[in-house]
Amino acid sequence: MYVGIDVGTSTVKAAAFDGSGRELAVAARPVGLSMHGGFVEQDMDEVYGAVVAVLEELTAEVDGPFELAGLTGQGDGVWLVDAEGRPVRAAASWMDGRAHELLDRWLADGTFETVFRRTGSAMFPGCPGPLLAWLAAHEPKALDAAAAALYCKDMVFQRLTGARATTDVSDASMPFLDPRTRSYDNGVVELLGLTRRRGLLAPVSDPVATAETRGEGLPVGTRIANGPYDLPACALGAGVTEPGDGLLIVGTCLASLVATTELDLSGEPAGLYISLDRPGHWLRAMPAMVGTAALDWVLSTTGVRHEEVDGLLAATPPGANGVRVLPYFAPSGERAPFVEPRLRAELTGVSLESTPADLIRATCEGIGYAARHCLEAAGLTGSLAVCGGGTRSPAWMRLLADVLGRPLRVVEGEVGARGAVLAAAERYGVPLDTGVWTRPTEVVEPDAGRAAFYAKGFEDHLARLAAARHRSR
After folding, report:
1. What is the dotted CATH code of the domain comprising 288-410+444-472?
2. Residues 409, 153, 389, CA angle at the centre, nearest 5°?
3. What residues have CB less than 8 Å from 179, skipping those under 6 apart?
């Protein structure tokens, strides 16, 4: 048996798999987010405690030892730890918006574009560059007390194993890693005013680091591999490895990924190139800030339960009776396929005749249009897989197929945890049949008539978005 650990933004999960990739058991525990005044933070001890708890639950449920474990988790943010991996302060989440004024300045003076041309990373407020620069200016004592500025999974790996703090090429891709040399670009560090703090950047382990666990959550001596982070782990778990093929992750973050062997740092700076364990291979990533989080907010606001979504999507026609949503709900604006730190969501076309069903369909359509925008910008030419919490709604999957105008290879279950196991198996030389492990649950075909309707709707979405971007500046 194998175990995959996925340390998500709102939920920590661990899944057990047999040798053919069959999911045997899953344990999950929610973790909190503190949001105040644009700050979005997480308690590292709570996150790590949730990891230990789900592993203890999982090992109690399944019978037999694990051959190895794979670890993945949310990317970006800043997780400051001391030499023992203990928190120096709360983790600043990838959703954090405190550095938006700093990013505004870098957008205006050309720093933002220069960094993209060198590393393929379009910075956003919640990535380590702006966050570390903000902390250097406002909380220098926190940086003084830290031994490393890690990513989420790296903190968990260090505490599970006691190994030296390191990261991998995927997490390091934003924003300091040169994708050609696979090492930190010290010129970018200097450009962001962080030369004095260069020592906080964790060494890049290439390939991913391995170690044995110390006995918290998993038995002492369990082999574990650290990485890649959740976006590339999901691509592995969904079988997206051939150039041109793509993956849409309908989760808290709406992430669009396309496998590529071409590194093109021209064009509008947006998204990033995620370096993979195979040199010369990248994921062109357009990770929009808000996916299911936008629908969650609408459901909470309207008092509608998740289990009612499918019925309500069927209760109103395509176009939601004229209600339209620009789904840019994140406190830090948007980061893909463009960067607008001050962009906010917009709801239009509402009247006294509008229903909760109209609002929910309009939100799902808006998220679909945002996904289409990202996938086209990322260069999708092949097949498209889809995973994440949104796949639990068959009606939403049919709507997405129509909005995107293409078949969806739906991959259900704990796809990130599955990819973490596959990465660990590759690292340890354990042969697993990836074709069997990544087989889709179903394929959802678009309806030709609805797809044509949504193709026109997408053009309207782009026009409304252009106007909203202009107003946000």
Report:
1. 3.30.420.40
2. 30
3. 119, 120, 173, 263, 273, 275, 282
Domain boundaries, the chain: 2-232, 288-410+444-472
pTM of the model: 0.92
Distance CA 275, CA 215 (A): 31
CA distance 349 to 351: 7
Whether the Cβ atoms of residue 333 and residue 340 lie closer than 8 Å to each other: yes
Residue 189's H or E segment, with its range, is helix 186-191
Nearest residue to 11 (alpha-carbon basis) of 414, 427, 439: 414
Q: What are the tens digits of pLDDT across the range 257-312?
A: 999 999 999 888 999 999 999 999 999 999 998 899 999 999 999 999 999 999 99
Question: What region does 414 belong to: left with phi over 0, alpha with psi -120 to 50, or beta?
Answer: beta
Q: Which residues contact 84 (CB under 8 A, 6 or more apart)?
A: none
| Per-residue pLDDT reduced to its tens digit, 10-19 | 999 999 999 9
Class of domain 2-232: alpha beta
Could you give the CA distance from residue 127 to residue 148 in angstroms, rounded to a whole number? 15
Phi-psi region of 426 (alpha: psi -120 to 50; beta: other; left: phi over 0): alpha
